[in-house]
Amino acid sequence: MESSAAAASPLSAVQAQFIQGGVAMVVASSSAQRLPSQARAVGCSVSSDRRRVTMLLRRSQCAALLEDIARSRALAVVFCQPSTHRTLQIKARDAVAQPPASVDAAALSRQADGFHRELAPLGYSAEWTRALLGYAPDDLVAVSFTPLEIFSQTPGPRAGERVA
């Protein structure tokens, strides 16, 4: 039986599995002047109660994004499965960046392998995928947030529909 904390989370178990399962992940925010900032994430983890999501980013590639998150604490993350274009967008207003508590290299490797399985039929090599998602452990930064709103962004008539 689910705990009341998990039941209160807008993120379903199916959605949590999807966003941790080898999909393309892009984190975005905006400046005070409403200029966008974004960065590709190399990993995602969801707390057991699904109330917190943590994205792992390469600090060296996301300075503007981190500044925008520090200023506003607002972000949006899109998770896209290349083979189907299934896409979820999660929005939050309490994001915080910090050094990762720990780096689960095995989980990051599983996510990269899953992403490669998505891209291989499209002609992308494992080497290309590893280069795209490669990281130095000391360059990682964790951005954690509470999911506030979740939208389907899968192309089609329901794109933009709020699902939670």
Could you characterize what this model shows?
- With 164 residues, this protein is an alpha+beta fold.
- The chain has one domain: Pnp Oxidase, Chain A (Roll), CATH 2.30.110.10.
- Helices cover 27% and strands 32% of the residues.
- It has helices at residues 4-8, 13-19, 63-72, 105-119, 126-133, and strands at residues 24-30, 36-46, 53-58, 75-81, 86-92, 96-98, 140-145, 149-152, 161-162.
- The protein has a 9-stranded antiparallel beta sheet with strand order 6-7-3-2-1-4-5-8-9, with helices on both faces.
- α4 crosses α5.
- Residues 1-6 have low confidence and may be disordered.
Provide keyphrases for this structure.
about 160 residues; alpha+beta; Pnp Oxidase, Chain A; 9-stranded antiparallel sheet; 5 helices; 9 strands; about 25% helix; disordered N terminus
What percentage of the residues does DSSP assign to strands (E)? 25-35%
CATH level-4 homologous superfamily: Electron Transport, Fmn-binding Protein, Chain A
What sort of overall outline do the alpha carbons produce when their principal axes are compared? globular
Integer tally of domains:
1
Helix share bin: 25-40%
Poorly predicted runs: 1-6
What is the CA-CA span between the terminal residues? 21 Å
